[in-house]
Amino acid sequence: MRAEPPGPRHEWLDADAGPVARPYTLTGGRVRPSVGLDLVAFVLAARGADPAGQSRLHPEHVRLVELARRPVPVAELAAELDLAVGVVRVLVGDLLARGLVSVHQPAGTTFLPDDNILKAVVSGLRAL
């Protein structure tokens, strides 16, 4: 029989929580993706991508490829897997390096409105 470990108990853990894996274990300690990914960048699985045949992939990698069979934003992938966005970015970078997914970045904003226009809009909204 195991005794309770000494020290304070974490209130956010209970017996039903099951095993908890730290995010850095999924990324091998990496915190930066191999490529810059925007939150709204779309991830799409490559045609015929079979992550099951790849070595050294976590179940999360496989799930990402399954979810990306249709174009899906990085933020939605993170929500679906219940993982931090930074972790998902690193995992998507791994998949991109293996050619299992492609990433489509949003078009850059070439036109930003003048500050005076934004101030006028805010003032108009406050006047309502």
What can you tell me about this protein's structure?
- The protein has 128 residues and is mainly alpha-helical.
- The chain has a domain at 23-108: Orthogonal Bundle (Arc Repressor Mutant, subunit A).
- Helix content is 38%, strand content 8%.
- The chain is built from 5 helices and 3 strands.
- It has helices at 23-27, 59-67, 74-81, 85-97, 115-127, and strands spanning 42-45, 72-73, 101-104.
- Helix 2 packs across helix 4 (85-97) and helix 3 (74-81) packs across helix 4 (85-97).
- It starts with 22 loop residues before the first helix and ends with a helix.
Properties at a glance:
single chain, 128 residues, mainly alpha, Arc Repressor Mutant, subunit A, 5 helices, elongated
